Amino acid sequence: MAEKVKVLLSEEEVDAKIREIGEQISRDYEGKQVHLVCVLRGGSFFMCELAKRITVPVSIDFMSVSSYGSETKSSGVVKIVKDLDDPLIGKDVIVIEDIVDSGRTLSYLMEMLKERKPASLRLCTLLDKPDRRVIDVNIDYLGFQIPDEFVVGYGLDYAQKYRNLPYIGIVDFD
Ligand code: IMP
Ligand code: MG
């Protein structure tokens, strides 16, 4: 456990950005209900904070897919570990993710969810690492673009640690 964590985005910066995204979503979905689909486990902290900032009616559901083990490299394999409880048909769905990295997880997931015939389907991610993209993914709501560094906090883990940090930090493995 030699790694150290240094702050990349402070708690204040992250909270302010989530507030902004919440306001934007509230405007865009005025008169509608949004159905937030949280991608576990990383998306959970972001979704809870974001949902509190949305002023239109909100429903939530959770799914879990795996593309990473406890290592910091993508396996390229996407597997549904836990599916949604409720159907998406006719709903205005926003998928909530912690980070888009290679894009493999999200491109697969968005295609799969589209087949369930939601009224609309958008993607909201707290972080985006564009330098690492392998598969193109359309992001509708974005918190921050970040450099190609391994980050933790606000739901993101390193070997299941650090998810509870209230800020985004860069892991220093030296
Ligand atoms: P992708 O399929 O390569 O876009 O990977 C997306 C998933 O990998 C995210 O939902 C995270 O769970 C994980 N991931 C990617 N980059 C990081 C990182 O810097 N820190 C922690 N987890 C990451
Ligand atoms: Mg994730």
Describe this structure in words.
- The chain has three helices and nine strands, in the order βαβαβββαββββ.
- By secondary structure, the protein is of the alpha/beta class.
- The chain has one domain: Rossmann fold.
- A six-stranded mixed β-sheet has the order 4-3-2-5-6-7, sandwiched between helices. The protein has a three-stranded antiparallel β-sheet with strand order 1-9-8.
- α1 crosses α2 (43-52).
- The chain is globular.
- The model has no long low-confidence stretch (mean pLDDT 93).
- Bound molecules: inosinic acid (IMP) and magnesium ion.
Number of helices: 3
Largest sheet: 6 strands, mixed
The second-level CATH architecture is 3-Layer(aba) Sandwich
**Helix/strand class:** alpha/beta
Which key terms come to mind for this protein?
32% strand; six-stranded mixed sheet; 174 residues; three-stranded antiparallel sheet; Rossmann fold; globular; binds magnesium ion; alpha/beta; binds inosinic acid; 9 strands
Question: What topology emerges from the helices and strands here?
Answer:
Blueprint: E1 4-9, H1 11-28, E2 34-40, H2 43-52, E3 58-66, E4 79-82, E5 92-100, H3 104-114, E6 120-128, E7 141-145, E8 151-152, E9 168-172
Parallel strand pairs: 2-3, 2-5, 5-6, 6-7
Antiparallel strand pairs: 1-9, 3-4, 8-9
Helix pairs in contact: 1-2
Bound molecules: inosinic acid and magnesium ion.
Residues 39, 42-43, 97-98 line the site of magnesium ion.
Give a quick rundown of the structure.
By secondary structure, this protein is α/β, with parallel strands linked by helices.
